[in-house]
Design brief:
three-stranded antiparallel beta sheet, 4 helices, 14% strand, elongated
Length: 74
Amino acid sequence: MLHKEPATVVLNEVIGRRLLNVREAAQYLGLEVDTVYKKARLREVPCVKVGRALRFDVEALGRFIEQHTIETID
């Protein structure tokens, strides 16, 4: 009989790939870490509080970038 890992381990693995820490989010957005903290505090950038830590959903950051993209004039 095969032993399956608990569901929580699988969920943590998925969350780990989807959520970025502040340093990773800053790199993803091309901003300084301090700027990301400030924008998160002002609720300008979507974030999730995990305990005392801030995490940033990659998909939400992608939507944020799309919503704030300025189109070119043809």
